[in-house]
Amino acid sequence: MNENEIIYGKNAVLEALISGEREINKILISKTTHSDTKLNKIKELAKNNGIIYQFVAKEKFAEYEGVSHQGIVAQISPIKYTDLDDFLSLPHNNDSLIILDGIEDAHNLGAIIRTAVCAGVSGIVIPSRRNVQINSVVEKTSAGAINHIPIIKVNSLTNAVDKLKKSDWWVIATDASAKDNHYEINYNDMNFAIIMGAEHAGVSKSLLKASDFVVKIPMLKNFNSLNVSNAFAVIIFEAVRQKLINSKVK
Amino acid sequence: MNENEIIYGKNAVLEALISGEREINKILISKTTHSDTKLNKIKELAKNNGIIYQFVAKEKFAEYEGVSHQGIVAQISPIKYTDLDDFLSLPHNNDSLIILDGIEDAHNLGAIIRTAVCAGVSGIVIPSRRNVQINSVVEKTSAGAINHIPIIKVNSLTNAVDKLKKSDWWVIATDASAKDNHYEINYNDMNFAIIMGAEHAGVSKSLLKASDFVVKIPMLKNFNSLNVSNAFAVIIFEAVRQKLINSKVK
């Protein structure tokens, strides 16, 4: 629950519902909250927009002690997502994307977003389920980077990969047991999407199969593997290195 | 307080004091704790070893509810540090070190340690002050890597850098405003130490001045900078790339 940005009070929740700018994941209402015009309006708008609201025991609000919540809080997603089709309809030239396949840790997601922005990545694709969503920890860890890059939320990563391939993008998956090293790829002269897998499970088999390349980061010590944000940094900045050297040569 | 590993109870604290294997930062004793032979022994050993113990109100123990603490807890550092001189007296051949200048975040330190182990780094130098110390968050974030690499704690980073240079190590500092890019360094055929600076302040001026090289990671977007663990990953895996390509050529 704490992993989402929380807004408090009837006015804030109502305004968020009216503006529609932010995605509201869930509204919690204390059973002891006094019913009035505003609360009725909140319930009506939530219902119309398919947003879940729950009546919970007032003890549930203990964690929000000290803020004026009036017995109502909403978990909201503070950013506006980009549609993959809209993204692909724009012109792209040696652009890059990162596709996140089930990242669970908010700190990792935040660090990945920050690194992606520094490396000039054009967008971040996350699945609408089985991945940590954009929340206040992610926002904070990204150091504000979240506001500088489109976040593309898709229902199916498999479909997203298919679309990318049909749109002249090359898809590169990362896997610890791959044969090829990440730096053997020539990242110039193509649009490419890098798939990074979940912290423990890695990239799912169906996506590995669908990818054009599968690469690994070679380790000098046989130990576990890199943290996912560090692994992404290594790969994307190899692409940056190649790009800069290439532009110098030209 | 939560950032250290905590051990509970008279026996555990006493054993830790006797073994001397672990560094004990502080012992907290509830004012209501019954004084007995063990407690007296604990106080005596702590005094002899210059370890601080404090008598605190029993309310301070509320956070340890549910564990059998007997009114005594100790904050301990679970690893054994390596001495820089001992480290330098070993043979080194194209080895690497990382020097951490004021890293504040335990997650970052943990990720750096993990990445260092994966990249075959030979040791991690941290200052005894003004840097997050090895604690349970660091241990957890490092995914156990902490047990696979010497942690070298020094009182003065400046002195450490001097010693390294005198021992035929090359010192490379990172700075966002450096002229040279990190990948322009030839990491082969030398022992090198990379200095990574604090999350906000960067590498301190005196260390920048003392370094043999100062390099940056070029950014493709003018945004802030990388998370320090990601920045380290980028640099050290460029060294790994060069090393692997070099060993293939030979």
Describe the protein in words:
- The structure is a homodimer of 250-residue chains.
- With 250 residues, chain A is an alpha/beta fold.
- The first copy, chain A, has two domains: 5-77, Ribosomal protein L30/S12 (60s Ribosomal Protein L30, Chain: A, 2-Layer Sandwich); 84-249, 3-Layer(aba) Sandwich (Alpha/beta knot), CATH 3.40.1280.10.
- The first copy, chain A, is built from eight helices and eleven strands.
- Chain A has a seven-stranded parallel beta sheet, with helices on both faces.
- In chain A, helix 5 (136-141) links the parallel strand 6 (123-127) and strand 7 (151-154).
- In chain A, helix 1 packs parallel to helix 2 (37-48) and helix 4 runs parallel beside helix 8 (228-249).
- Chain A is elongated.
- The model of chain A has no long low-confidence stretch (mean pLDDT 88).
- Chain A binds chain B through residues 107, 111, 114-115, 117-120, 141, 143-145, 148, 181, 183, 217-221, 223-227, 229-234, 237-238, 240-241, 243-244, and chain B through 107, 111, 114-115, 117-120, 141, 143-145, 148, 181, 183, 217-221, 223-227, 229-234, 237-238, 240-241, 243-244.
